[in-house]
Structure formats: C-alpha cells, structure tokens
Write a structure and sequence with these properties.
The chain is α/β, with parallel strands linked by helices and about 260 residues long. It is about 35% helix and about 25% strand. The chain binds adenosine-5'-diphosphate.
Length: about 260
Amino acid sequence: MPNLTIIKVGGAIVENEASLNHLLNDFANIPAPKLLVHGGGRSATRFAERLGIKTQMIDGRRVTDTPMLEVVTMVYGGLVNKNIVAALQKRGINALGVTGADLNLILSQKRPIKNGIDYGWVGDVKSGNSATFAKLLNAGIVPVLAPLSHDGEGHILNTNADTIAAQTAIECATAGFNTSLIYCFEKDGVLADANDDSSVIPTIDFSKYLSLKADGIISGGMIPKLDNAFETLRAGVKRVIITNAANIATPDTGTVITL
Ligand code: ADP
C-alpha cells in the first residue's frame, strides 16, 4: 500500500504570505503521493467587503446566500486555489487545482433549513470519488482541493474544508492508500490551555475527546475538526494529526488522534 499524505491547511495560514511559503516549502519536500486541501474564509470576507456584500456568520459558520456563493466560488476555486497551484509549480510540484465539482470528486447535498436556520448554499458531504482520486495520485498529479463541492444538480456548494479533507482521506484509504491526514493551523496542536502554546496534548482518543469537550477545553472550530478526525479513523485512515502549519515536516510534535 503506498503511503499518502493529505495536508489540510486553514485560512489563517493560507492568507499570510510568509506562513504559506513556509508550508508550501515543507509540502514540496513530502514524498508523493500527496494532496493539499485549503480554506480561505478570511479572503472571502475581504473580497465580499470590497464588492459591498455583507458577511453573515451563525455560530462561526458562513451563511452563503447567492452573492456570497459567487464570492466563495471565485475566491476559493479561483484566487486562493490557483495561487497555491502556481506556488507549487514553482517548486517543481505538478499540482492540479480542483473543486469537489471537478471530476465529480466530492458530492454533497444542500444543508436543509434546521431550527429556522438557513445556511444557504452550504453543502453537507455525501460521498467522494475514490477511483478518480486514485487515478490522479497514481498519475503523479498532486491535487489541490478548494472547499467547494457540488450537488449533481448543477449547483456549487460552499463546504467546510475540514470535511472535504476528511472525505478525501476516506476515499483514498478506500482506494488502498496508507493514508495520513494532517490538519494544520496556527497553533501547535490541541491545547490544554488555549492561551499556552506549550500545553499541547500529545494524544487524544475518543473517550478523552468526550471529556475534554465536556470540560470546555475543546470548543469552537476544534469540535467539528475532531469529529471529522474520528470519522476518518473509523473509516480506515491510518493516522490523523493536528499540528502547527510550521511543523508539518515533524507532525508528531502536534496532537496525534487515535480511536
Ligand atoms: P482552521 O480553519 O484554521 O483549521 P478552525 O477555526 O476550524 O481553524 O479550528 C481551529 C480553532 O479551534 C483554533 O483556532 C481555536 O480557536 C479553536 N480551539 C478550540 N479549542 C481548542 C484547543 N483546545 N486547542 C486548540 N485550538 C482550539
């Protein structure tokens, strides 16, 4: 089974030139096959503002009405994605920038209105295209995925990048890759004290996760990230790590997630 590394990089890293360059240098050095999934929320908010489109968030999640869908499609699928592709090509990496609609890689369904909350054009992932991921990787291509999917009915859907990374990892594991998924962001891992970067929790299994969550130590964006992490492990992904984007060359210094 070939080893595959999937890196998911959050918005704060992608949108800072220095941290992005550092990450892409390290990513370029990871042996292929490999794949990158990126966010881009802050850029979308900035471009929306330039276009006079209001950003509305509910519980930290973006409401995607039609004008906002246009913005995220342009910013995630265009600007952010192609800048990363060009930066990887410069480093000799044969990157191919795609959304989940391209090659039918990630299929989702529009999130239904629940408790009166309508997120608009937001996708909940249904499935991914295992065979096509395998074809790309086996052809020596390095896919770079934007956080967009489609519903098979002609609509692009704004989709959480952590979830896209999780589904991609599951599809690649299903296709026979020995898959490692590395969620990287601006902190050194999952922290016992949010304000203390030296308080990295080295390993978290499912029961520890539940107690950390109950104690409020794990909160906000870390909850769906960890839910995704456990789902991928249950589906056959070999290794999941949450770490600083500056440390992907030594990911074990972050938090290792185990069942
Ligand atoms: P990204 O898009 O960069 O991946 P998210 O906002 O989805 O980031 O999730 C990471 C965020 O989770 C952190 O920026 C932090 O605010 C929050 N968080 C909550 N609990 C913790 C914790 N125990 N350790 C680290 N981060 C945490």
